[in-house]
Amino acid sequence: MAMLELKDVTISYKNVPAVQNVNLSLEEGEICSIVGESGSGKTTVIRAVLGLLAGGGKVTKGDILFDGETLLTRSGEEWRKLRGTKISMIFQDSGAMMNPTRKIGDCFVEYIRTHENISKKDAWEKGVKMLENMRLPNGDNVMRSYPFQLSGGMRQRVGIAMGMTYQPKLLLADEPTSALDVTTQAQIIRQFMELREEYGTSIIMVTHNLGVAAYMSDYIVVMKDGIIEDEGTRDYILKGTRKEYTKTLLDAVPSLGGVRYV
Amino acid sequence: MFDEKDVILEAKHITRKFPASGGRTLTACSDVSLKLYKGKTLGLVGESGCGKSTFMRFLVSLDTPTEGEIFFHGKNITQLKGEELRQNRQYIQMVFQDPSASFNPKMKIRDIICEPLMNFKRIKASEKDAVARKFLEMVDLPGEFADRYPHNMSGGQRQRVAIARAIALEPEIIVMDEATCALDVSVQKTIIELVVGLQKQKNISIGFIAHDLGLIQSFAHQIAVMYLGTIVEVLPGEEISTSAMHPYTQALLGAVFDLNMDFSKKIESIESEAPSPLDVPPGCPFQNRCDRCMEICREKRPALIDVAKGHQVACHLYT
């Protein structure tokens, strides 16, 4: 049985469908990328999985199953048990999800103590350890910093550290590298790959960078105007696809030693 | 390909220091010398905070360097003031990263495109409509867009309007500060094609800032790689993937995700982050991230030296 299954899902904002008839299934340890242009509904899909649809968005048709159980009828309390421990999310700018007037450590300790009944001191140590696992040297120092004191890459790592604290089975990443420099992007992508090797985490990654999607994923979904336009294994998407839209997208990716206009 | 007599703009030993808290100084650019050639594109790449935007702002006279001079057709433009400075702006125009933030939201596209022309009294108010349509068509947008407001358009369309506004004065140089990085790849491609087409047609020189090496090598004649305020390598655009020499350029190349790459290969990326420009180490700025760092790198800053025609590199490995 697949770990996560989206069955014929339609999501609407104020009765206007934004995403229609999406089917997707993900096995344990699998990495799937959703690619597409802005406004194609890729973020809406993963937000629906975690029940975080913004602005009155609702799943109006179909079902989302996680470990065989539906996610659509959960109460607030049930969601709290699931979020952060079994399913985590990493946002485009992790700095924006943190309170700017509180130190990283303060948020992190609160986060840990929401999920687990431990002392502040133990929670602090757990946080430091997680940060250092995510290759943030001197985790203690990071815990004592405000979000604005860290660089974009470091903030993103803090986000990943928080998301991975309870080794969730499923990690949802919404454009986690698009605000970063190429070198930092490479470091973060490598970290995602290590998460899978180390913890067997499944990842759904929303991105518009086809190069990144191709490098990371076992399976790629191409979305356009709220529907799945094309999907398949990496090899199929890169080499075997017959869809014109996918070909145009692939064609537009600038590549080293590729097309030159001058 | 790069003829000395085609040099249209030359920056010589540009340094820019900003005062920072605690009496410290932040050196955003240190001793940067670059040349722009007639009808050619100079691509400037580097990580955020390396000073590439600071440098490009000098070219459009939005800021003045602490030291050094910029010569446009042999004339020093760094000290221009008043009317002379205003007149000079006609020749060098800019396209910004975020097209929605660089327009007045209450102006119609017609007024946006024609404003620079009106400022320099090149056209009469009665001609605005026709002129706006002409420029819109030049950037492949329908002429009816003249009546729209910026918020009625998509990001790609807005960026086309920004380009139309920049070419309206028929400038000799256009500076583009990450002009495509907020756009989807498919839109990005069409914008690049448009820019390259206009460049060929009007023989404009372009200064393009980017951090995507794959993108920049597809249309730059000359690429300059910047790190922590200094230029570490300058080389012809078509050679970037084959003959880059500086360890930093090679690291940037290693971090590019390419559809044709070997997916089983581990990503090679430099660890750690660039040091703060507030305390640049003595010696080579790249020393703490370089895997081939030597004794001399910690003591002496390498100078930019010629290694081949049109190819300069600043690294002790090659001295």
Keywords, separated by commas or semicolons:
heterodimer; A: 262 residues; alpha/beta; Rossmann fold; 6-stranded mixed beta sheet; 4-stranded antiparallel beta sheet; 40% helix; B: 319 residues; 8-stranded mixed beta sheet; 27% helix
Spatial shape of chain A: globular
Q: Tell me the strand order in the biggest sheet of chain A.
A: 6-7-8-3-9-10
Q: CATH top level of chain B?
A: Alpha Beta
Oligomer description: heterodimer
Strand and helix order of chain B: EEEHEEHEHHHEHEHEEHHEE
Q: Which regions of chain A contain 5 or more consecutive residues with pLDDT less than 50? A: none
Strand percentage of chain B, roughly?
Answer: 15-25%
CATH superfamily of the domain at 1-74 and 203-262 in chain A: P-loop containing nucleotide triphosphate hydrolases
Number of helices of chain B: 9
Largest beta-sheet characterization of chain A: 6 strands, mixed
Order of strands side by side in the largest beta sheet of chain B?
6-7-8-3-9-10-12-11
Number of strands of chain B: 12
Outline the biggest β-sheet of chain B.
Answer: 8 strands, mixed
Helix content, binned percent of chain A: 25-40%
- Classify the beta-strand content of chain A into a percent band: 25-35%
Cα radius of gyration of chain B in angstroms: 21 Å
CATH architecture of chain B: 3-Layer(aba) Sandwich
Under CATH, the topology of the domain at 1-74 and 203-262 in chain A is which? Rossmann fold
CATH fold type of chain B: Rossmann fold
